[in-house]
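Quick log. Single chain, no ligands specified.
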Amino acid sequence: MRIDALKIDRSFVDPIGTESPLLHVTGRIIQIGIDLRLIVIAEGIEREEQAAYLKERGVTLAQGWHYSQPVPASEFIAFWAERQKRHGSGSPTWEGRGKSGGVHSPVRPWGDYERP
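-> predicted structure:
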């Protein structure tokens, strides 16, 4: 079985910005993914400080309310087209809803993504 990605559960994202000892585990999980040259995905990002922490440590892709509320499949095409229109025809970007406008992270279709 080939493993291409490591997805970090929101339970490891929630402690970011706190004094929780679990935060050390989060950092180690990210590093394991990077060391194995995997696509590292974090879920459950709700705050800008979480997005910044994960991006600084090399997380490849991110998802959560910080970027967008869930979008029904029937509305996704229009949603994605609007995002691309706002950010140009190059690699699409997601912007968070934080006070400073959020963190901009490239999001590419899986087939177009080169492993780290």
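The mean pLDDT is 79.
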